[in-house]
Amino acid sequence: MRHWIIVITCCAIAPSAWCTSWFATRVISYAPGSGAAPGHRVAASALGAPARMTGSTAEPETVTPFQPAWMPDQVVSIGAGGSLVLELGATATDDPGHRFGIDLIVYGNAFFSDMAWPTGVPGFLASEGGLVDLSEDGVNWMNVPGATIEGGLPTMGWSDAGAYDTAPGSVESDFLRAVNPAVNESAVAGMAYTELLTQYDGGAGGVGIDLAAAGLASARFIRLRHAAGSFGSPEVDAVAVIPPTPSPYDLDGSGTVDFGDIAFLLLSMGDAGGPMDVDGSGVVDFGDVAIVLLEMGG
Question: What domains lie within the chain, and their CATH numbers?
Answer without folding.
Answer: 2-9+248-296 (1.10.1330), 23-241 (no CATH)
